[in-house]
# Entry
Amino acid sequence: MANILGIDYGQKYIGYAIGNDITLTSSTQGTIIYKNQKKLFQEIQDLINEWEIKLIILGLPINMDDTESKMSKKVRGFKEKIEKSLNIECKLHDERLSSFEAKEQNEIIKKNKIQPNPGIDALAAQVILESWLREKK
# Structure
């Protein structure tokens, strides 16, 4: 396949990471701050074009008891809009512990003064994408 875009979807911020399913590696890229979906979809389209993305992995927030939250429904709707608007396959991936892991990584980055700090949203996107890549092996 090749390059994959991992997304951690939020109401105001979207963290994203780029991965590759051949090398099974990924890197954080950044966070998109958006006020409207038109701008957001244009930025995602730009990423697809720039990185020649073939697939999007979108984090699906699931509660620890396996139930879905209000945010899960929003993410499912976002997935459908991505597929229709951008004409690209988008898969959902359980992101249950991604925020916790991203916060731990962010603390290490801060403590060691690593620059640039990609931020929690981008780190969460990388955690989601790497989890999907590991399961794919």
User: Anything to note?
Assistant: Residues 3-136 form a domain with the Nucleotidyltransferase; domain 5 fold (CATH 3.30.420.140). The longest strand covers residues 25-33. The helical segments are 37-51, 70-86, 98-111, 120-136.
